[in-house]
Automatic annotation (TrEMBL):
It comes from Winogradskyella luteola. This is Protein-export membrane protein SecG. Residues 95-116 have a biased composition (Polar residues). It is a multi-pass membrane protein. It comes from the Bacteria. GO terms for biological process: intracellular protein transmembrane transport; protein secretion; protein transport by the Sec complex. Keywords: Cell membrane, Membrane, Protein transport, Translocation, Transmembrane, Transmembrane helix, Transport. InterPro entries: SecG. GO terms for cellular component: plasma membrane. The chain crosses the membrane at residues 6-24, 58-76.
Length: 116
């Protein structure tokens, strides 16, 4: 397994965790933190602590995601040459330099078709 594959798996896991942490939060102060009790902000392990944990974990996961993406870019093998399937060098040498000449039997004069 290459280093890029390992980074890719870690990126998917961190992105999933980030989505879960963001979905647990409620922008109006509800969410997971409101289910633990009242509005007291000085409770030990209560609403305030849960909200702080979710906020810090969001920032940590977002930073980890960015760092993993940047690190995965370093592991991409830039020395590998990928051949294009759309361009074949052998076929390019067989292309004629000019178009074939058309015969007068199959073509009509533009002036005759316009009527002038």
């Amino acid at each position: 397994m290459s280093a890029f594959t390992i980074f890719l798996i870690l990126i998917v896991i961190v992105a999933f965790l980030l989505v879960v942490v963001i979905m647990v939060q409620n922008p109006k102060g509800g969410g997971l933190s409101s289910s633990f009790g009242g509005g007291g902000t000085q409770q030990l392990g209560g609403v305030k602590k849960t909200s702080d944990f979710l906020d810090k974990s969001t920032w940590f996961l977002a930073t980890a995601l960015i760092l993993l993406i940047l690190a995965s870019n370093l592991t991409i093998d830039s020395g590998a040459v990928v051949e294009s399937k759309a361009y074949d060098e052998d076929d390019a040498t067989n292309v004629p330099a000019t178009l074939p000449q058309s015969t007068d039997d199959n073509t009509t004069n533009l002036n005759d078709s316009i009527g002038g």
